[in-house]
Specification:
Largest sheet: 7 strands, mixed, barrel
Helix content: 25-40%
Shape: globular
Structural class: alpha+beta
Number of helices: 6
Oligomer: single chain
């Protein structure tokens, strides 16, 4: 019984000592790991522009998303005229051309994370390689719907896949599991109406937007208390098994 009481005390102390408020923003973690989900919505990206100071902006109907520095370079595959016009005219998941854009918005700090999937015919392999040249790999490349995942995109040829069959399609996943790839800010440009009138996109890009906010102290305490109760429950089970082991 003393062991049982001591275990419960340790569980409570451990839970109390870990009751720290998470950071206001964690660039390395997906928002769903430490924020409250507010809901999802579908949006349209009306324009994509680059500025002389090497920033990239994606403009929706109501707000704009700014990417700078190295993050902006990972959007370079969306600026290739060789395939973008054809992609926008087709853009169906079961077709040769497809683009899926996804945004996660931190409404507490006006920050955004973006990922995308890009499907293209194999003839654009060199164009896609050139657009990503010099960047650290933050993506996955698959040829022909999962038959061959490429570990070295710049040197490994489609013919080197295990089945040794001709490949017809590339899929670029600009994401790697739970690692967020491209970080930016939510802004609203003063000249956005003028930019939208001169939009470089003949057809808008459908996109998905998930909204999040920081958890309140009350939500954090409630979650910690729930974790404590679960830990205590598991501890009781383990202790009872220890106590009754001689009987069994």
């Amino acid at each position: 019984m003393k062991k049982f009481i001591s275990l419960l005390c340790l569980l409570v102390l451990a839970a109390c000592s870990s009751n720290n408020t998470p950071p206001a923003h964690d660039k390395t973690k997906p928002f769903h790991l430490y924020m409250t989900h507010l809901g999802d919505e579908k949006i349209l990206i009306r324009s994509i522009v680059k500025t002389p100071d090497n920033k990239t902006y994606l403009l929706s109907d109501t707000e704009d998303y700014e990417f700078s520095g190295i993050d902006a370079h990972y959007l370079q595959p969306l600026f290739q005229p060789e395939y973008m016009t054809k992609l926008l005219k087709s853009n169906r998941s079961n077709d040769k051309f497809y683009l899926m854009l996804g945004f996660d918005a931190d409404r507490s700090n006006n920050l955004v994370k973006v990922n995308y999937d890009l499907k293209l015919p194999m003839k654009y392999l060199d164009t896609l390689r050139q657009s990503l040249k010099g960047l650290e790999q933050r993506w996955r490349i698959i040829y022909d719907d999962g038959n061959c995942e490429v570990s070295d995109f710049f040197h490994q040829e489609p013919s080197e896949c295990k089945d040794n069959k001709p490949k017809t399609q590339i899929t670029l996943y600009m994401e790697k599991g739970n690692k967020q790839i491209i970080n930016g800010r939510i802004v609203k440009l003063n000249n956005r109406d003028e930019i939208l009138k001169k939009s470089s996109l003949p057809i808008p890009i459908p996109a998905y937007l998930s909204n999040y906010r920081l958890k309140t102290d009350e939500e954090i305490r409630s979650e910690k208390w729930k974790d404590t109760k679960e830990a205590a429950k598991d501890g009781v089970k383990d202790t009872l098994m220890i106590i009754t082991a001689p009987i069994w």
